[in-house]
Amino acid sequence: MSAVLVVHGGAWAIPDKLAKASVDGVKGAACEGFSVLKEGGSALDAVEAAVRSMEDNAVFNAGHGAALNTDGEVELDAIIMDGRTLDCGAVSSVQNIANPVSLARAVMEKTCHVMLMGRGANLFAESIGVATVPTDSMVTEYERKEWEKQKNYITGVMEDFNSQWAHDTVGAVAVDCAGNVACATSTGGIRNKMVGRVGDSPVIGSGGYADNCSGAVSCTGHGESILKVTLARLILSYIEQGKSAADASQLSLEYMGSRVQGAGGAIVVTPPGQWAATFTTERMAWAAVENDILWYGLDPNERVKEQLSRQ
Amino acid sequence: MLPVVVVHGGAGHIPKERSKNSMSGVCSATRAGYAVLKGGGSSMDAVVEAVTQLENNPSFNAGCGSVLTVKGDVEMDAIVMDGKTLGSGAVSAVRNIANPVQLARLVMDKTSHACLTAEGASQFARSMGVPEVPQESLITEYARMRWKKNLAPGANPVECQMGKMGTVGAVAVDSEGNVACATSTGGILNKMEGRVGDTPCIGCGGYADNQTGAVSTTGHGEAIMKVTLARLILFHMEQGQSVEAASDLGLAYMKSRVEGLGGVVTVDPQGNWAARFSSLQMAWAAAQKDTLHYGLYCGEHFTQSIEDPN
Protein backbone atom coordinates (compact mmCIF):
# COMPACT_ATOMS: atom_id res chain seq x y z
CA MET A 1 0.00 0.00 0.00
CA SER A 2 1.54 3.26 -1.13
CA ALA A 3 1.48 6.25 1.20
CA VAL A 4 0.86 9.65 -0.42
CA LEU A 5 0.67 13.15 0.94
CA VAL A 6 -0.45 16.28 -0.93
CA VAL A 7 -0.47 19.84 0.39
CA HIS A 8 -1.64 23.19 -0.91
CA GLY A 9 -0.76 26.69 0.24
CA GLY A 10 -3.61 28.58 -1.41
CA ALA A 11 -5.24 29.05 -4.81
CA TRP A 12 -5.11 32.66 -6.03
CA ALA A 13 -3.06 35.04 -8.18
CA ILE A 14 0.04 34.58 -6.04
CA PRO A 15 2.30 37.55 -6.82
CA ASP A 16 5.85 36.84 -7.94
CA LYS A 17 7.26 38.36 -4.77
CA LEU A 18 5.57 35.62 -2.72
CA ALA A 19 6.04 32.80 -5.21
CA LYS A 20 9.34 31.35 -4.01
CA ALA A 21 8.40 31.45 -0.34
CA SER A 22 5.03 29.83 -1.08
CA VAL A 23 6.57 27.02 -3.10
CA ASP A 24 9.33 26.47 -0.54
CA GLY A 25 6.68 26.43 2.17
CA VAL A 26 4.53 23.75 0.56
CA LYS A 27 7.58 21.65 -0.31
CA GLY A 28 8.75 21.79 3.30
CA ALA A 29 5.30 20.94 4.62
CA ALA A 30 4.92 18.01 2.22
CA CYS A 31 8.25 16.56 3.30
CA GLU A 32 7.39 16.97 6.93
CA GLY A 33 4.04 15.26 6.51
CA PHE A 34 5.50 12.49 4.42
CA SER A 35 8.19 11.70 6.96
CA VAL A 36 5.36 10.95 9.42
CA LEU A 37 3.90 8.47 6.92
CA LYS A 38 7.30 6.91 6.24
CA GLU A 39 7.73 6.17 9.93
CA GLY A 40 4.41 4.34 9.86
CA GLY A 41 2.36 7.25 11.19
CA SER A 42 -1.32 7.66 10.37
CA ALA A 43 -2.79 9.83 7.64
CA LEU A 44 -4.33 11.90 10.43
CA ASP A 45 -0.93 12.53 12.07
CA ALA A 46 0.59 13.35 8.69
CA VAL A 47 -1.99 15.95 7.62
CA GLU A 48 -1.82 17.59 11.03
CA ALA A 49 1.97 17.83 10.84
CA ALA A 50 1.90 19.24 7.31
CA VAL A 51 -0.71 21.87 8.15
CA ARG A 52 1.05 22.84 11.40
CA SER A 53 4.17 23.49 9.37
CA MET A 54 2.24 25.92 7.16
CA GLU A 55 0.45 27.53 10.14
CA ASP A 56 3.88 28.26 11.61
CA ASN A 57 5.05 29.74 8.31
CA ALA A 58 4.12 33.42 8.15
CA VAL A 59 3.92 33.46 4.35
CA PHE A 60 0.57 31.61 4.50
CA ASN A 61 -2.78 32.91 5.68
CA ALA A 62 -3.17 30.38 8.50
CA GLY A 63 -2.00 30.59 12.11
CA HIS A 64 1.01 32.92 11.95
CA GLY A 65 0.57 35.34 9.10
CA ALA A 66 -3.20 35.16 9.10
CA ALA A 67 -5.28 37.88 7.46
CA LEU A 68 -7.09 40.41 9.66
CA ASN A 69 -10.83 40.93 9.86
CA THR A 70 -12.42 44.34 9.47
CA ASP A 71 -11.72 45.14 13.13
CA GLY A 72 -8.03 44.36 12.68
CA GLU A 73 -8.23 41.11 14.61
CA VAL A 74 -7.27 37.56 13.78
CA GLU A 75 -10.04 34.93 13.59
CA LEU A 76 -9.01 31.47 12.56
CA ASP A 77 -10.84 28.47 11.12
CA ALA A 78 -9.64 24.87 10.75
CA ILE A 79 -10.90 21.36 10.13
CA ILE A 80 -9.50 17.85 10.32
CA MET A 81 -11.26 14.65 9.34
CA ASP A 82 -10.52 10.93 9.69
CA GLY A 83 -11.69 8.93 6.68
CA ARG A 84 -11.85 5.66 8.59
CA THR A 85 -14.51 6.70 11.12
CA LEU A 86 -15.79 9.93 9.50
CA ASP A 87 -14.84 11.57 12.81
CA CYS A 88 -14.25 15.25 12.39
CA GLY A 89 -13.10 18.24 14.41
CA ALA A 90 -13.39 21.91 13.50
CA VAL A 91 -12.91 25.33 15.03
CA SER A 92 -14.19 28.59 13.62
CA SER A 93 -13.47 32.19 14.57
CA VAL A 94 -11.01 31.14 17.22
CA GLN A 95 -8.56 33.81 18.31
CA ASN A 96 -4.89 33.81 19.17
CA ILE A 97 -4.18 30.12 18.81
CA ALA A 98 -0.93 29.28 17.03
CA ASN A 99 -2.11 25.95 15.62
CA PRO A 100 -5.85 25.84 14.99
CA VAL A 101 -5.55 22.47 13.19
CA SER A 102 -4.35 20.86 16.41
CA LEU A 103 -7.16 22.48 18.35
CA ALA A 104 -9.59 21.08 15.76
CA ARG A 105 -8.09 17.65 16.33
CA ALA A 106 -8.58 18.07 20.08
CA VAL A 107 -12.25 18.93 19.49
CA MET A 108 -12.55 15.67 17.56
CA GLU A 109 -10.73 13.54 20.12
CA LYS A 110 -11.62 15.14 23.42
CA THR A 111 -15.23 16.28 23.05
CA CYS A 112 -18.44 14.74 21.80
CA HIS A 113 -18.85 17.63 19.34
CA VAL A 114 -17.60 18.26 15.84
CA MET A 115 -17.28 22.04 15.83
CA LEU A 116 -16.57 24.73 18.41
CA MET A 117 -16.41 28.41 17.69
CA GLY A 118 -15.17 31.66 19.15
CA ARG A 119 -15.02 32.07 22.85
CA GLY A 120 -16.21 28.50 23.40
CA ALA A 121 -13.29 27.20 21.36
CA ASN A 122 -10.88 29.43 23.28
CA LEU A 123 -12.29 28.24 26.63
CA PHE A 124 -11.85 24.66 25.48
CA ALA A 125 -8.26 25.39 24.45
CA GLU A 126 -7.57 26.79 27.90
CA SER A 127 -9.15 23.76 29.55
CA ILE A 128 -6.73 21.42 27.77
CA GLY A 129 -3.68 23.60 28.34
CA VAL A 130 -3.31 25.03 24.83
CA ALA A 131 -1.59 28.40 25.13
CA THR A 132 -3.06 31.66 23.85
CA VAL A 133 -0.66 33.67 21.72
CA PRO A 134 -0.68 37.49 21.67
CA THR A 135 -2.18 38.96 18.46
CA ASP A 136 0.99 40.90 17.69
CA SER A 137 3.04 37.75 17.45
CA MET A 138 0.63 36.30 14.88
CA VAL A 139 0.22 39.36 12.66
CA THR A 140 2.86 40.15 10.06
CA GLU A 141 3.78 43.62 8.82
CA TYR A 142 2.62 42.50 5.40
CA GLU A 143 -0.88 41.61 6.62
CA ARG A 144 -1.21 44.79 8.64
CA LYS A 145 -0.27 46.83 5.51
CA GLU A 146 -2.65 44.83 3.27
CA TRP A 147 -5.44 45.35 5.81
CA GLU A 148 -4.89 49.12 5.76
CA LYS A 149 -4.75 49.16 1.96
CA GLN A 150 -7.93 47.13 1.56
CA LYS A 151 -9.89 49.30 3.95
CA ASN A 152 -9.76 51.85 1.17
CA TYR A 153 -10.88 49.63 -1.72
CA ILE A 154 -14.37 49.84 -3.09
CA THR A 155 -15.88 46.50 -2.10
CA GLY A 156 -17.82 46.13 -5.34
CA VAL A 157 -14.72 46.07 -7.47
CA MET A 158 -13.09 43.42 -5.35
CA GLU A 159 -16.20 41.24 -5.57
CA ASP A 160 -15.88 40.93 -9.32
CA PHE A 161 -12.43 39.48 -9.22
CA ASN A 162 -12.59 37.00 -6.42
CA SER A 163 -9.67 35.05 -7.85
CA GLN A 164 -7.49 38.11 -7.30
CA TRP A 165 -8.21 38.07 -3.59
CA ALA A 166 -5.63 36.38 -1.45
CA HIS A 167 -6.89 32.89 -0.73
CA ASP A 168 -3.87 31.38 0.88
CA THR A 169 -5.71 28.94 3.02
CA VAL A 170 -3.54 25.86 3.60
CA GLY A 171 -4.43 22.20 3.56
CA ALA A 172 -3.26 18.62 3.29
CA VAL A 173 -4.62 15.20 2.37
CA ALA A 174 -2.98 11.85 2.88
CA VAL A 175 -3.37 8.12 2.55
CA ASP A 176 -1.24 6.02 4.90
CA CYS A 177 0.19 2.51 4.67
CA ALA A 178 -3.00 1.07 6.13
CA GLY A 179 -5.10 2.68 3.40
CA ASN A 180 -6.70 5.25 5.71
CA VAL A 181 -7.27 8.72 4.34
CA ALA A 182 -7.46 12.06 6.15
CA CYS A 183 -7.72 15.76 5.36
CA ALA A 184 -6.97 19.03 7.14
CA THR A 185 -7.51 22.69 6.20
CA SER A 186 -6.62 25.89 8.06
CA THR A 187 -7.11 29.60 7.37
CA GLY A 188 -7.33 33.14 8.65
CA GLY A 189 -10.15 33.72 6.16
CA ILE A 190 -10.74 36.59 3.75
CA ARG A 191 -8.82 39.79 4.43
CA ASN A 192 -11.08 42.48 5.97
CA LYS A 193 -13.93 39.99 6.38
CA MET A 194 -16.82 40.94 8.63
CA VAL A 195 -16.29 40.04 12.28
CA GLY A 196 -17.44 36.46 12.78
CA ARG A 197 -17.44 35.56 9.09
CA VAL A 198 -17.14 31.82 8.67
CA GLY A 199 -15.94 30.59 5.29
CA ASP A 200 -15.67 27.12 3.84
CA SER A 201 -12.59 25.91 5.68
CA PRO A 202 -14.16 24.66 8.92
CA VAL A 203 -17.38 23.44 7.27
CA ILE A 204 -17.41 19.69 6.73
CA GLY A 205 -18.00 18.82 3.09
CA SER A 206 -16.88 22.24 1.89
CA GLY A 207 -13.37 23.02 3.18
CA GLY A 208 -12.56 19.35 3.42
CA TYR A 209 -13.91 15.81 3.62
CA ALA A 210 -12.39 12.39 4.10
CA ASP A 211 -13.92 8.97 3.64
CA ASN A 212 -12.07 5.69 3.28
CA CYS A 213 -14.71 4.63 0.75
CA SER A 214 -13.73 7.33 -1.73
CA GLY A 215 -10.90 9.64 -0.71
CA ALA A 216 -9.88 12.84 1.00
CA VAL A 217 -10.11 16.43 -0.26
CA SER A 218 -8.92 19.83 0.97
CA CYS A 219 -10.13 22.96 -0.83
CA THR A 220 -8.97 26.54 -1.18
CA GLY A 221 -10.28 29.52 -3.10
CA HIS A 222 -13.32 31.76 -2.82
CA GLY A 223 -14.90 30.46 0.36
CA GLU A 224 -18.48 31.48 -0.26
CA SER A 225 -18.42 29.76 -3.67
CA ILE A 226 -16.90 26.60 -2.22
CA LEU A 227 -19.71 26.52 0.36
CA LYS A 228 -22.45 26.95 -2.24
CA VAL A 229 -21.36 23.83 -4.11
CA THR A 230 -20.06 21.88 -1.06
CA LEU A 231 -16.91 21.43 -3.13
CA ALA A 232 -15.08 18.71 -1.17
CA ARG A 233 -18.13 16.48 -0.99
CA LEU A 234 -18.93 17.16 -4.65
CA ILE A 235 -15.48 16.02 -5.77
CA LEU A 236 -15.84 12.79 -3.79
CA SER A 237 -19.30 12.14 -5.23
CA TYR A 238 -17.69 12.08 -8.70
CA ILE A 239 -15.04 9.68 -7.44
CA GLU A 240 -17.80 7.49 -6.01
CA GLN A 241 -19.24 7.39 -9.53
CA GLY A 242 -15.96 6.12 -10.95
CA LYS A 243 -14.21 9.31 -12.06
CA SER A 244 -10.47 9.73 -11.51
CA ALA A 245 -9.23 12.13 -8.83
CA ALA A 246 -8.12 14.60 -11.52
CA ASP A 247 -11.36 14.44 -13.53
CA ALA A 248 -13.52 14.67 -10.42
CA SER A 249 -11.62 17.79 -9.32
CA GLN A 250 -11.71 19.40 -12.77
CA LEU A 251 -15.45 18.78 -13.23
CA SER A 252 -16.26 20.13 -9.78
CA LEU A 253 -14.13 23.26 -10.12
CA GLU A 254 -15.61 23.95 -13.56
CA TYR A 255 -19.08 23.57 -12.09
CA MET A 256 -18.20 26.03 -9.33
CA GLY A 257 -17.00 28.47 -11.98
CA SER A 258 -20.06 28.20 -14.20
CA ARG A 259 -22.76 27.89 -11.54
CA VAL A 260 -21.58 30.45 -8.99
CA GLN A 261 -18.68 32.23 -10.73
CA GLY A 262 -16.21 31.07 -8.12
CA ALA A 263 -12.57 30.09 -8.60
CA GLY A 264 -10.46 27.86 -6.40
CA GLY A 265 -8.38 24.74 -6.08
CA ALA A 266 -8.44 21.29 -4.53
CA ILE A 267 -6.07 18.53 -3.59
CA VAL A 268 -7.34 14.98 -3.56
CA VAL A 269 -6.03 11.57 -2.61
CA THR A 270 -7.78 8.19 -2.93
CA PRO A 271 -7.28 5.02 -0.86
CA PRO A 272 -5.43 3.20 -3.69
CA GLY A 273 -3.01 6.16 -3.84
CA GLN A 274 -4.28 8.20 -6.80
CA TRP A 275 -3.80 11.94 -6.25
CA ALA A 276 -4.43 15.28 -7.93
CA ALA A 277 -3.77 18.98 -7.41
CA THR A 278 -6.15 21.07 -9.54
CA PHE A 279 -7.05 24.76 -9.68
CA THR A 280 -9.01 27.29 -11.71
CA THR A 281 -7.28 30.34 -10.25
CA GLU A 282 -4.16 31.81 -11.81
CA ARG A 283 -1.86 29.90 -9.49
CA MET A 284 -1.87 27.42 -6.63
CA ALA A 285 1.17 26.51 -4.55
CA TRP A 286 1.09 22.73 -4.08
CA ALA A 287 3.37 19.80 -3.41
CA ALA A 288 2.99 16.03 -3.20
CA VAL A 289 5.20 13.18 -2.07
CA GLU A 290 4.85 9.61 -3.26
CA ASN A 291 7.49 6.88 -3.28
CA ASP A 292 10.19 9.32 -2.16
CA ILE A 293 9.48 11.57 -5.13
CA LEU A 294 8.51 15.17 -4.47
CA TRP A 295 6.22 16.85 -7.02
CA TYR A 296 5.31 20.50 -6.88
CA GLY A 297 3.93 23.36 -8.88
CA LEU A 298 2.63 26.90 -8.94
CA ASP A 299 1.48 27.82 -12.44
CA PRO A 300 -1.11 25.90 -14.45
CA ASN A 301 0.23 22.63 -15.91
CA GLU A 302 3.50 23.08 -14.02
CA ARG A 303 4.74 19.85 -12.49
CA VAL A 304 8.29 19.71 -11.21
CA LYS A 305 9.83 16.47 -9.98
CA GLU A 306 12.56 16.06 -7.40
CA GLN A 307 13.99 12.94 -5.86
CA LEU A 308 13.91 13.05 -2.08
CA SER A 309 17.23 12.04 -0.55
CA ARG A 310 16.97 8.64 1.10
CA GLN A 311 17.74 8.53 4.84
CA MET B 1 -48.42 19.60 -8.16
CA LEU B 2 -46.99 23.00 -7.26
CA PRO B 3 -46.64 24.74 -4.92
CA VAL B 4 -45.62 22.57 -1.96
CA VAL B 5 -44.29 23.20 1.52
CA VAL B 6 -43.10 20.54 4.00
CA VAL B 7 -42.25 21.30 7.60
CA HIS B 8 -40.67 19.31 10.45
CA GLY B 9 -40.51 20.00 14.16
CA GLY B 10 -37.86 17.54 15.25
CA ALA B 11 -37.03 13.83 15.02
CA GLY B 12 -36.77 11.53 18.01
CA HIS B 13 -38.99 10.45 20.79
CA ILE B 14 -41.67 12.98 21.58
CA PRO B 15 -43.41 12.32 24.90
CA LYS B 16 -47.20 12.04 24.63
CA GLU B 17 -47.84 15.14 26.68
CA ARG B 18 -45.84 17.23 24.21
CA SER B 19 -46.91 15.60 20.96
CA LYS B 20 -50.19 17.49 20.69
CA ASN B 21 -48.38 20.84 20.79
CA SER B 22 -45.75 19.62 18.34
CA MET B 23 -48.36 18.48 15.86
CA SER B 24 -50.49 21.61 16.09
CA GLY B 25 -47.34 23.69 15.78
CA VAL B 26 -46.10 22.05 12.57
CA CYS B 27 -49.60 22.11 11.04
CA SER B 28 -50.00 25.77 11.83
CA ALA B 29 -46.57 26.63 10.41
CA THR B 30 -47.38 24.64 7.28
CA ARG B 31 -50.61 26.51 6.76
CA ALA B 32 -48.74 29.80 7.09
CA GLY B 33 -46.05 28.73 4.61
CA TYR B 34 -48.68 27.52 2.16
CA ALA B 35 -50.62 30.77 2.39
CA VAL B 36 -47.45 32.60 1.37
CA LEU B 37 -47.04 30.34 -1.66
CA LYS B 38 -50.68 30.59 -2.72
CA GLY B 39 -50.40 34.36 -2.44
CA GLY B 40 -47.60 34.26 -5.03
CA GLY B 41 -44.75 34.38 -2.55
CA SER B 42 -41.46 32.64 -3.21
CA SER B 43 -40.33 29.33 -1.73
CA MET B 44 -37.78 31.32 0.32
CA ASP B 45 -40.54 33.54 1.74
CA ALA B 46 -42.57 30.42 2.57
CA VAL B 47 -39.84 28.51 4.42
CA VAL B 48 -38.77 31.59 6.36
CA GLU B 49 -42.39 32.22 7.39
CA ALA B 50 -42.92 28.61 8.47
CA VAL B 51 -39.69 28.48 10.46
CA THR B 52 -40.31 31.90 12.02
CA GLN B 53 -43.59 30.59 13.39
CA LEU B 54 -41.86 27.54 14.86
CA GLU B 55 -39.15 29.75 16.40
CA ASN B 56 -41.88 31.83 18.05
CA ASN B 57 -43.59 28.68 19.33
CA PRO B 58 -42.09 27.69 22.71
CA SER B 59 -42.76 23.99 22.07
CA PHE B 60 -39.78 23.67 19.73
CA ASN B 61 -36.01 23.77 20.13
CA ALA B 62 -35.57 26.95 18.10
CA GLY B 63 -35.82 30.60 19.01
CA CYS B 64 -38.07 30.69 22.05
CA GLY B 65 -37.98 27.24 23.63
CA SER B 66 -34.37 26.54 22.64
CA VAL B 67 -32.35 24.11 24.74
CA LEU B 68 -29.70 25.61 27.00
CA THR B 69 -25.93 25.30 26.83
CA VAL B 70 -24.13 23.64 29.73
CA LYS B 71 -23.80 27.12 31.27
CA GLY B 72 -27.53 27.79 31.00
CA ASP B 73 -27.39 30.17 28.04
CA VAL B 74 -29.17 30.14 24.68
CA GLU B 75 -27.03 29.92 21.54
CA MET B 76 -28.85 29.39 18.26
CA ASP B 77 -28.00 28.28 14.74
CA ALA B 78 -29.95 28.73 11.52
CA ILE B 79 -29.58 28.42 7.75
CA VAL B 80 -31.49 29.35 4.61
CA MET B 81 -30.64 28.40 1.06
CA ASP B 82 -32.03 29.52 -2.29
CA GLY B 83 -32.10 26.76 -4.90
CA LYS B 84 -32.05 29.17 -7.85
CA THR B 85 -28.77 30.90 -7.08
CA LEU B 86 -27.34 28.48 -4.48
CA GLY B 87 -27.21 31.59 -2.33
CA SER B 88 -27.12 30.78 1.36
CA GLY B 89 -27.11 32.56 4.69
CA ALA B 90 -26.37 31.12 8.10
CA VAL B 91 -25.79 32.20 11.67
CA SER B 92 -24.18 30.06 14.36
CA ALA B 93 -24.01 30.39 18.13
CA VAL B 94 -25.99 33.63 18.01
CA ARG B 95 -27.55 35.01 21.18
CA ASN B 96 -30.44 37.28 22.09
CA ILE B 97 -32.25 37.19 18.77
CA ALA B 98 -35.87 36.11 18.50
CA ASN B 99 -35.68 34.83 14.89
CA PRO B 100 -32.32 33.45 13.82
CA VAL B 101 -33.80 32.25 10.50
CA GLN B 102 -34.55 35.84 9.55
CA LEU B 103 -31.06 36.92 10.51
CA ALA B 104 -29.67 34.07 8.37
CA ARG B 105 -31.70 35.40 5.45
CA LEU B 106 -30.27 38.88 6.01
CA VAL B 107 -26.75 37.42 5.92
CA MET B 108 -27.60 35.96 2.52
CA ASP B 109 -29.32 39.06 1.15
CA LYS B 110 -27.24 41.85 2.62
CA THR B 111 -23.67 40.60 2.92
CA SER B 112 -21.16 38.97 0.62
CA HIS B 113 -20.68 36.22 3.19
CA ALA B 114 -22.47 32.93 3.80
CA CYS B 115 -22.16 32.54 7.56
CA LEU B 116 -21.66 34.81 10.55
CA THR B 117 -21.07 33.59 14.06
CA ALA B 118 -21.68 34.75 17.62
CA GLU B 119 -20.70 38.33 18.36
CA GLY B 120 -20.16 39.03 14.66
CA ALA B 121 -23.71 37.91 13.94
CA SER B 122 -25.00 40.11 16.77
CA GLN B 123 -23.08 43.13 15.47
CA PHE B 124 -24.59 42.54 12.04
CA ALA B 125 -28.07 42.21 13.56
CA ARG B 126 -27.65 45.57 15.27
CA SER B 127 -26.51 47.16 12.03
CA MET B 128 -29.69 45.83 10.37
CA GLY B 129 -31.92 47.19 13.11
CA VAL B 130 -32.85 43.69 14.33
CA PRO B 131 -33.84 44.10 17.97
CA GLU B 132 -31.91 42.38 20.70
CA VAL B 133 -34.14 40.40 23.06
CA PRO B 134 -33.38 39.45 26.65
CA GLN B 135 -32.21 35.87 26.97
CA GLU B 136 -34.94 35.20 29.54
CA SER B 137 -37.59 35.72 26.85
CA LEU B 138 -36.18 32.73 24.95
CA ILE B 139 -35.96 30.35 27.93
CA THR B 140 -38.93 28.17 28.87
CA GLU B 141 -39.50 26.33 32.14
CA TYR B 142 -39.28 23.08 30.24
CA ALA B 143 -35.85 23.98 28.79
CA ARG B 144 -34.58 24.98 32.18
CA MET B 145 -35.87 21.77 33.75
CA ARG B 146 -34.17 19.59 31.10
CA TRP B 147 -30.93 21.54 31.54
CA LYS B 148 -30.87 21.03 35.31
CA LYS B 149 -31.68 17.35 34.93
CA ASN B 150 -28.80 16.86 32.50
CA LEU B 151 -26.24 18.57 34.69
CA ALA B 152 -26.33 15.47 36.90
CA PRO B 153 -23.30 13.22 36.43
CA GLY B 154 -24.10 10.17 34.32
CA ALA B 155 -26.83 11.96 32.41
CA ASN B 156 -26.94 11.35 28.66
CA PRO B 157 -28.09 14.58 27.04
CA VAL B 158 -28.00 13.28 23.46
CA GLU B 159 -30.35 10.45 24.24
CA CYS B 160 -32.42 12.61 26.52
CA GLN B 161 -32.88 15.17 23.82
CA MET B 162 -33.78 13.14 20.78
CA GLY B 163 -37.09 14.48 19.59
CA LYS B 164 -38.35 15.91 22.83
CA MET B 165 -37.14 19.28 21.79
CA GLY B 166 -36.76 19.38 18.05
CA THR B 167 -34.78 21.41 15.58
CA VAL B 168 -37.26 22.86 13.11
CA GLY B 169 -37.12 23.23 9.38
CA ALA B 170 -38.96 23.55 6.11
CA VAL B 171 -38.55 23.01 2.39
CA ALA B 172 -40.72 24.39 -0.37
CA VAL B 173 -41.10 24.65 -4.11
CA ASP B 174 -43.07 27.62 -5.43
CA SER B 175 -45.21 28.00 -8.52
CA GLU B 176 -42.15 28.92 -10.57
CA GLY B 177 -40.32 25.75 -9.62
CA ASN B 178 -37.81 27.44 -7.32
CA VAL B 179 -36.84 25.42 -4.26
CA ALA B 180 -35.62 26.62 -0.88
CA CYS B 181 -34.85 25.27 2.58
CA ALA B 182 -34.59 26.71 6.08
CA THR B 183 -33.52 25.11 9.38
CA SER B 184 -33.27 26.56 12.89
CA THR B 185 -32.24 25.20 16.26
CA GLY B 186 -31.04 25.83 19.79
CA GLY B 187 -28.69 22.87 19.29
CA ILE B 188 -27.97 19.96 21.60
CA LEU B 189 -29.07 19.95 25.22
CA ASN B 190 -26.28 21.11 27.57
CA LYS B 191 -23.84 21.58 24.71
CA MET B 192 -20.44 23.16 25.30
CA GLU B 193 -20.35 26.92 24.80
CA GLY B 194 -19.63 27.63 21.14
CA ARG B 195 -20.71 24.20 19.92
CA VAL B 196 -21.92 24.37 16.34
CA GLY B 197 -23.99 21.48 15.00
CA ASP B 198 -25.22 20.55 11.56
CA THR B 199 -27.88 23.20 11.22
CA PRO B 200 -25.82 26.16 9.96
CA CYS B 201 -23.45 23.98 7.94
CA ILE B 202 -24.46 24.02 4.30
CA GLY B 203 -25.03 20.49 3.01
CA CYS B 204 -25.65 19.21 6.53
CA GLY B 205 -28.57 21.07 8.12
CA GLY B 206 -30.00 21.85 4.70
CA TYR B 207 -29.33 22.27 0.99
CA ALA B 208 -31.36 23.55 -1.94
CA ASP B 209 -30.67 23.38 -5.66
CA ASN B 210 -33.21 24.04 -8.41
CA GLN B 211 -31.59 21.28 -10.46
CA THR B 212 -32.39 18.61 -7.88
CA GLY B 213 -34.42 19.63 -4.85
CA ALA B 214 -34.25 20.84 -1.26
CA VAL B 215 -33.71 19.12 2.08
CA SER B 216 -33.93 20.19 5.73
CA THR B 217 -32.61 17.81 8.39
CA THR B 218 -33.09 17.13 12.10
CA GLY B 219 -31.61 14.59 14.50
CA HIS B 220 -28.22 13.98 16.04
CA GLY B 221 -26.25 16.94 14.72
CA GLU B 222 -22.75 15.47 14.86
CA ALA B 223 -23.90 12.38 12.94
CA ILE B 224 -25.67 14.51 10.31
CA MET B 225 -22.45 16.48 9.84
CA LYS B 226 -20.28 13.39 9.38
CA VAL B 227 -22.36 12.19 6.44
CA THR B 228 -23.33 15.68 5.13
CA LEU B 229 -26.88 14.33 5.15
CA ALA B 230 -28.74 16.98 3.12
CA ARG B 231 -26.18 16.94 0.30
CA LEU B 232 -26.04 13.13 0.39
CA ILE B 233 -29.78 12.82 -0.14
CA LEU B 234 -29.61 15.18 -3.11
CA PHE B 235 -26.71 13.18 -4.61
CA HIS B 236 -29.02 10.14 -4.56
CA MET B 237 -31.73 12.17 -6.27
CA GLU B 238 -29.22 13.33 -8.90
CA GLN B 239 -28.60 9.63 -9.54
CA GLY B 240 -32.30 9.10 -10.21
CA GLN B 241 -33.66 8.06 -6.81
CA SER B 242 -37.11 9.30 -5.77
CA VAL B 243 -37.46 11.81 -2.91
CA GLU B 244 -38.54 9.00 -0.63
CA ALA B 245 -35.88 6.47 -1.60
CA ALA B 246 -33.11 9.06 -1.51
CA SER B 247 -34.17 10.24 1.94
CA ASP B 248 -34.33 6.66 3.24
CA LEU B 249 -30.93 5.81 1.74
CA GLY B 250 -29.34 8.85 3.39
CA LEU B 251 -30.87 8.09 6.78
CA ALA B 252 -29.98 4.39 6.59
CA TYR B 253 -26.40 5.24 5.75
CA MET B 254 -26.18 7.64 8.70
CA LYS B 255 -27.48 4.89 10.97
CA SER B 256 -25.12 2.18 9.74
CA ARG B 257 -21.96 4.25 9.21
CA VAL B 258 -22.06 6.55 12.26
CA GLU B 259 -24.94 5.21 14.38
CA GLY B 260 -26.97 8.37 14.17
CA LEU B 261 -30.73 8.78 13.98
CA GLY B 262 -32.66 11.63 12.45
CA GLY B 263 -35.29 12.83 10.04
CA VAL B 264 -35.62 14.90 6.89
CA VAL B 265 -38.12 16.74 4.77
CA THR B 266 -37.34 16.68 1.07
CA VAL B 267 -38.90 18.19 -2.04
CA ASP B 268 -38.01 18.17 -5.74
CA PRO B 269 -38.71 20.94 -8.30
CA GLN B 270 -41.66 18.96 -9.72
CA GLY B 271 -43.45 18.96 -6.37
CA ASN B 272 -42.71 15.43 -5.18
CA TRP B 273 -42.08 15.45 -1.45
CA ALA B 274 -41.24 13.19 1.47
CA ALA B 275 -41.05 13.34 5.26
CA ARG B 276 -38.88 10.44 6.44
CA PHE B 277 -37.17 9.53 9.69
CA SER B 278 -35.13 6.75 11.28
CA SER B 279 -36.04 7.79 14.81
CA LEU B 280 -39.24 6.69 16.52
CA GLN B 281 -41.13 9.82 15.60
CA MET B 282 -40.94 13.10 13.73
CA ALA B 283 -43.59 15.80 13.88
CA TRP B 284 -44.16 16.82 10.26
CA ALA B 285 -46.76 18.38 8.01
CA ALA B 286 -47.02 19.27 4.34
CA ALA B 287 -49.40 21.24 2.15
CA GLN B 288 -50.08 20.64 -1.52
CA LYS B 289 -53.18 21.13 -3.72
CA ASP B 290 -55.09 22.63 -0.78
CA THR B 291 -54.60 19.45 1.26
CA LEU B 292 -52.83 19.29 4.60
CA HIS B 293 -50.82 16.12 5.22
CA TYR B 294 -49.30 15.29 8.61
CA GLY B 295 -47.96 12.57 10.84
CA LEU B 296 -45.89 11.75 13.89
CA TYR B 297 -45.18 8.01 14.08
CA CYS B 298 -43.58 5.95 11.37
CA GLY B 299 -46.15 5.03 8.73
CA GLU B 300 -48.66 7.70 9.76
CA HIS B 301 -50.01 9.88 6.99
CA PHE B 302 -53.18 11.82 7.77
CA THR B 303 -54.84 14.24 5.40
CA GLN B 304 -57.50 16.87 5.64
CA SER B 305 -58.53 19.93 3.71
CA ILE B 306 -56.22 22.84 4.38
CA GLU B 307 -59.31 24.86 5.28
CA ASP B 308 -60.27 22.59 8.18
CA PRO B 309 -59.20 23.94 11.58
CA ASN B 310 -56.56 21.97 13.59
UniProtKB/TrEMBL annotation, chain A:
Keywords: Autocatalytic cleavage, Hydrolase, Protease. One of its GO terms (molecular function) is beta-aspartyl-peptidase activity. The active site is at T169. GO terms for biological process: L-asparagine catabolic process via L-aspartate; proteolysis. It catalyses: L-asparagine + H2O = L-aspartate + NH4(+); Cleavage of a beta-linked Asp residue from the N-terminus of a polypeptide. Its EC number is 3.4.19.5, 3.5.1.1. Belongs to the Ntn-hydrolase family. This is Isoaspartyl peptidase/L-asparaginase. It comes from Parambassis ranga (Indian glassy fish).
Automatic annotation (TrEMBL), chain B:
It is an enzyme of class 3 (hydrolase). The keyword Nucleotidyltransferase does not apply. The record marks G166, T167 as: Cleavage. This is Isoaspartyl peptidase/L-asparaginase. One of its GO terms (cellular component) is cytoplasm. InterPro entries: ASRGL1_meta, Ntn_hydrolases_N, Peptidase_T2. Keywords: Autocatalytic cleavage, Hydrolase, Protease. The lineage of its organism: Eukaryota, Metazoa, Chordata, Craniata, Vertebrata. GO terms for molecular function: asparaginase activity; beta-aspartyl-peptidase activity. It comes from the Eukaryota. Pfam families: Asparaginase_2.
